[in-house]
């Protein structure tokens, strides 16, 4: 696949290039030194942004109370982008080798992502997803890193405890009938820092064979046709680079999304010598209780 699978994503402007831990979506800002040093400890967090789903409904009722026709309320909320957001962020420093079906931890190169890592089991709620019979399997240079909460999630599962802990059983989680409005994918990553390709491509996104994809997980199966490339790493990049991709509701993956689906972030690398080093990533899904305005 690689860059031949889709056109390389153009370099974002400085306003768009906001690293995940310094994003306006996350109030906990970190030092610039985190560009060069590993996070203190891996974490998996699950947060709901303002406005919450309840706040959106309350504002809708208030607008009707003020005399605004109910059929105009969804359009007003869309114009204001007054949508509820559910965000998952992962800070786990790993690298994916184009020749290996697992990831390796940057802190402990001997460890591999074989589906037994506690964070991974918690992340997907079912360890079977990465074993035979599961819908998602790690393959050479093709490893999942992060998965969103189910689309329509309105709060942390009541069976979870403590920040960064996601319950293994999410059947108790509130799921609302919603329509997705946009999805924000944030990554902090780089490739192996060198290549034998044309040096003219160094520092660009051309012929970069280290990239990210997203797909939809419905139940324990990947939704057919939902896998799409969203971001390449800088070719022979020397430093970790942040990317922020804002996907609108008409993105090919999001057009297939249904309440309860999850968005999966895949780390990809292809061809001998290519690596994808990842420090952190976040997926934020924005939804509305109303169908899109026409």
Descriptive report:
The structure is a single chain. The protein has helices at residues 53-65, 73-79, 118-124, 252-255, and strands at 43-49, 84-91, 94-97, 103-105, 142-147, 179-190, 210-218, 221-222, 228-232, 241-248, 262-269, 275-288. The protein is mainly beta and 294 residues long. Strands 1, 2, 3, 4, 6, 10 and 12 form a seven-stranded antiparallel β-sheet that branches. The model is unreliable at 1-19, 21-28, 112-134 and 156-173 (pLDDT under 50).
Keywords for this entry:
294 residues; mainly beta; 7-stranded antiparallel beta sheet; 4 helices; 29% strand; disordered N terminus
Give the helices and strands as they follow along the chain.
Answer: EHHEEEHEEEEEEHEE
**Residues in β-strands, percent:** 25-35%
Shape: elongated
Mean pLDDT equals: 77
Structural class: mainly beta
Oligomer: single chain
Number of helices: 4
What can be said about this structure in brief?
With 294 residues, the protein is mainly beta.
List the helices and strands and how they pair.
Blueprint (H helix, E strand, L loop, with lengths): L42 E7 L3 H13 L7 H7 L4 E8 L2 E4 L5 E3 L12 H7 L17 E6 L31 E12 L19 E9 L2 E2 L5 E5 L8 E8 L3 H4 L6 E8 L5 E14 L6
Antiparallel strand pairs: 1-2, 2-12, 3-4, 3-12, 5-11, 6-10, 6-12, 7-8, 7-9, 7-11
């Amino acid at each position: 696949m690689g860059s031949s699978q889709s056109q390389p994503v153009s370099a974002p402007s400085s306003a768009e290039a906001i690293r995940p831990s310094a994003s306006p979506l996350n109030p906990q800002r970190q030092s610039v030194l985190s560009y060069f040093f590993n996070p203190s400890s891996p974490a998996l967090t699950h947060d709901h942004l303002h406005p919450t789903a309840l706040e959106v409904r309350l504002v809708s009722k208030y607008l009707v109370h003020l005399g605004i026709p109910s059929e105009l309320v969804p359009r007003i909320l869309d114009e204001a982008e007054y949508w509820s957001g559910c965000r998952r962020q992962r800070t786990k420093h790993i690298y994916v080798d184009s020749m290996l079906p697992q990831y390796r931890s940057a802190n402990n190169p001997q460890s591999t992502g074989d589906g037994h890592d506690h964070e991974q089991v918690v992340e997907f709620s079912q360890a079977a997803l990465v074993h035979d019979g599961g819908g998602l399997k790690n393959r050479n240079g093709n490893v999942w890193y992060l998965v969103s909460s189910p689309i329509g999630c309105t709060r942390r599962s009541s069976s979870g405890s403590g920040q960064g802990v996601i319950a293994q059983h999410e059947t108790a989680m509130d799921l609302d009938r919603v329509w997705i409005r946009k999805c924000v994918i944030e990554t902090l990553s780089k490739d192996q820092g060198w290549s034998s390709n044309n040096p003219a491509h160094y520092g660009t996104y051309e012929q970069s064979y280290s990239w990210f994809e997203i797909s939809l997980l419905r139940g324990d199966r990947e939704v057919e046709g939902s896998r799409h490339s969203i971001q390449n790493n800088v070719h022979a990049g020397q430093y970790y680079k942040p990317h922020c991709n804002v996907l609108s509701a008409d993105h090919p993956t999001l057009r297939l999304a249904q309440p309860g689906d999850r968005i999966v972030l895949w780390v990809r690398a292809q061809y001998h010598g290519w690596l994808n080093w990842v420090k952190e990533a976040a997926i934020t899904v924005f939804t509305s209780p109303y169908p899109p305005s026409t």
